Amino acid sequence: MTTLEGPALGIPTGSLPGTPGELAHADLVGRLAREIYGQGQAASQPFAPSLPASPQLPQGLESLPQGPGGASLPAADLGLPSAPAGGLPSGLQPDAASLGARSFGAPPVGLPGLTGPSQANPVGATPAPASANLLDLSAIPSVHPYPAQAKLPEYFVPSLPEVAAHLPGGTDLHRQIAADHPRANAFAHAVAPSLVPAAPGKPGGDVSQEHFARFGHLPHPSQPDGASDYYFLNPAPSARKKSAAQPRVEPSRHAGPAPRVTSHGSVPAGAPFDVEHVRKDFPALHQSVNGHPLVWLDNAATTHKPQSVIDATSEFYGRHNSNIHRAAHTLAARSTDLFEGGREKTRRFLNAPSKDDIVFLRGTTEAINLVANSYGRAHIGPGDEIIVSTIEHHANIVPWQLLAQSTGATIRVIPVNDRGEIIFEQYAALLSGRTKIVSVTHVANALGTVNPIREIIALAHAYGVPVLVDAAQSTPHIPIDVQSLDADFLVFSGHKVFGPTGIGALYGKKHLLEAMPPWQGGSHMIEDVTFSKTVYKGAPEKFEAGTPDIAGAVGLGAALDYLESIGLPAIAAYEHDLLEYAQEGLAEVKGLRLIGTALNKASVMSFTVNGVSNEAVAHHLDAHGIAVRSGHHCALPALRRFGVDQSVRASLAFYNTREDVDVFLRALHTLPRP
């Protein structure tokens, strides 16, 4: 196969970079292409990063394998593999039949500040806080060596089916990925060693496997042995020494009071989690349905509201009702203060740098649509790629599909294993110079899987790609810190966090929100309007056209106050114990198949029962006063991965009890069978 020369590509020779550093980087691109294809005699051994004691990315690419004997591989003027010199291997120029979906030589992606790491700013244009769990990428050169106008040939990676068709290893997916993408595998292992074994072909020789055999779960990069089993309760490494020990539940398998919260460190444990006291705050729980006390197990769809939220909303309409921002009278001032107070409480709940980083919207769905239509239409075009996972809610699929259809972009999907966990090394293989955004759920609404969101973000940032986090199902259960996660966008809904319906929030990094154009136009989002030109306000106002849900923002603030008064770490620990208790009981129900068995899982149980329709199961439970959901849960691709179109879903909240679970299990045991 011949190597294309510069003039053949329509690129003037004089326009090519000529400095030693640029040529060395061009040579690196050529060697990467040969390694990815693994053809001929080209060097193909996996990248072996030299990792520091703390979890970081590989320190530089100079340790990439060279040619035989360690000599540097040759490079043509274009940075492509050249003809063999002496005993060195010949290069590879892929033909048209080899072209796939991903490029390592594409132009820079994203906004300025997200096109590659630098010494001053390793993963984004917004300086990260000292507490953030960031990776040191300063020694890794940019993966985009040429300006957009160079129009160099693009190197592609074959798709997974193509890989599987030609590589040995049978159905061992990880071995195939590691063999076909050794650099991606090593890179992913450096970012997330708990998720990607370094040497999949050496059973028992991997740290992750040894940890699993010893502790019964995979390690987390930020969690030392002996720390909390609930990794989402542990702070970032940089903040751990300054933080008090996080609580966990002392599990018990007998009847009695709610589990007590204990501490792993020397800090005294907090007060016991008094679930009966909590339940008194929720009036909707104290009613009968079909002659039985209500057991609410539909919390993933919506949560009930504490009295404080009901009172705050009612008081707004009873005493303070007024439109905001645009009047000088007293009630307008009160309403404005209450509305902006809700924004500040949301900022505090997420630990956002500024309340101006918080945009109020109707909920998670509208927030994702805003990002897709504003950021997406400004930065995504033909041939670009959007990465989502198999286990997304429809709200994190359909907006991106609409964007892809209108722009010519492509959606790439991260697969999941049989437990419902994303295959991290395949996610690493999907990332490339074509990727323009990654949009993934933190907790899967149909399966309960808790995704390794910190590692997902870190790896995307190594490619200069922003990440949107769908936190609709994680915010009611898990402490969220957008600065520690280094999330670019994060969205959630009020009615999932015990607040009103019709209100939600988008967090965005300041430089991203400032660069995004408005999506909807109308009142309040403008500075000035003439028939020839409109001047818009800055974020967040430019995304909040029209009269907002003022009472909803007030109620959301009250709900977040309530959650913080209880403490999300204590909530997470209590719910984790309750989930384990419930899943142990489900295992004893004849013919029941649990869908979604991730090692790290939130309070969701999706299941089917052999021989009984999902709707019949839900109706039977409802007759006993138990509210569950049956259907596709707005997550058809996730369920179809497990061979079903629908399931029954029972989901827990911190106001549920073991007695609730026992009633639920007894009703399942009495389910009529055909």
TrEMBL record:
Catalytic reactions of this protein: (sulfur carrier)-H + L-cysteine = (sulfur carrier)-SH + L-alanine
Region (Disordered): 1-22, 40-104, 215-234, 239-272
Keyword set includes Cytoplasm: no
Cofactor: pyridoxal 5'-phosphate
Domain Aminotransferase class V: 295-664
UniProt-listed Enzyme Commission number(s): 2.8.1.7
Keywords, in A-Z order: Pyridoxal phosphate, Transferase
Gene3D superfamilies: Aspartate Aminotransferase, domain 1, Type I PLP-dependent aspartate aminotransferase-like (Major domain)
Key word Transferase present: yes
Enzymatic class: transferase
Family statement drawn from the similarity comment of this UniProt entry: Belongs to the class-V pyridoxal-phosphate-dependent aminotransferase family. Csd subfamily.
UniProt xrefs under NCBIfam families: f2_encap_cargo1, sufS
Identification of the protein by name: cysteine desulfurase
Organism of provenance: Methylorubrum zatmanii
